[in-house]
Design goal:
One of its GO terms (molecular function) is 5'-nucleotidase activity. Pfam families: HAD_2. This protein is of the alpha/beta class. The chain has two domains: about 140 residues, 3-Layer(aba) Sandwich (Rossmann fold); about 80 residues, Putative phosphatase, domain 2 (DNA polymerase, domain 1). The chain contains ten helices and six strands; from the N terminus they run E-H-H-H-H-H-E-H-E-H-H-E-H-E-E-H. A six-stranded parallel beta sheet has the order 3-2-1-4-5-6, sandwiched between helices. Helix 6 links the parallel strand 2 and strand 3. It is globular, with a radius of gyration of 18 Å.
């Protein structure tokens, strides 16, 4: 008998290659405002964005603050005064046009579907963007339901994000639930908080210090092998 019945998938940098999509979307946005896309400017944006998303995960700011201020702050650092909300919407349009995947995504989803697992998407982000990117990737049909933080009302690792899934799907036995994701601070920490097992997709061979996953794999191919060989 298999260990798990339900699998919650993170999307960004787990199935969808957000890093690549973001890179090209930012190139297009910077060009629109006449800002050179180079390592220095990219790093400046990443620092601002990471600071705001970290505060969001900690629950100290609202998502609107992230989306409305990150580009206003970035372009201000370039000497430009822009409408942060408008710039974010423009960036999102560029992002929604992308179809970049993590290697092995289809193969893993096909395998898990054929094996009878019930799959959910459990992702932080904006509803319209995540849904469009899944549609672009022709992945929507793999999931019984999509749980996106903007629509749920809570961000991973908030236990209320996961509790929403358990309640709406009438999942009583949490030992049958597995979380798969790349983020220690949201996916793995959230799984630990609610008491479900997890697989950390560690694409960059990082070290796990505080948030310990149940399993660790360096690729989606390795996750497939883990699930198959260990009858998970």
């Amino acid at each position: 008998m298999k260990t798990y019945k339900y699998i919650i998938f993170d999307l960004d940098n787990t199935l969808l290659n957000f890093t690549k999509s973001e890179h090209y979307a930012l190139q297009d946005l910077f060009a629109k405002y006449g800002v050179i896309f180079n390592e220095e400017n990219f790093s400046t944006y990443k620092e601002i964005n990471h600071e705001l998303w970290s505060k969001l995960e900690e629950g100290t700011i609202q998502k609107a603050a992230v989306l409305e201020t990150r580009f206003a702050r970035f372009f201000a650092a370039q000497g430009l005064q822009v409408d942060g909300k408008k710039a974010d919407d423009e960036y999102r349009q560029f992002l929604e046009g992308r179809n970049d995947l993590i290697d092995g995504a289809y193969e893993l989803l096909d395998y898990l579907t054929e094996e009878g697992y019930i799959l959910f998407a459990g992702t932080n982000g904006v509803g319209r963007t995540q849904r469009q990117r899944l549609k672009n990737a022709e992945m929507t049909h793999y999931f019984k339901e999509l749980y996106i933080s903007e629509e749920v009302g809570f961000e991973k690792p908030d236990v209320r994000f996961f509790d929403t899934i358990f309640t709406q799907e009438n999942i009583k036995d949490l030992s049958k639930v597995l979380m798969i994701g790349d983020s220690l601070s949201s996916d793995i920490r959230g799984a630990n908080r609610v008491g479900i097992d997890s697989i950390w997709l560690n694409l960059y061979s990082d070290k796990s210090v505080e948030d310990k996953p149940t399993y660790e794999c360096l690729s989606l191919k390795k996750i497939k092998e883990l699930m198959n060989n260990n009858n998970l």
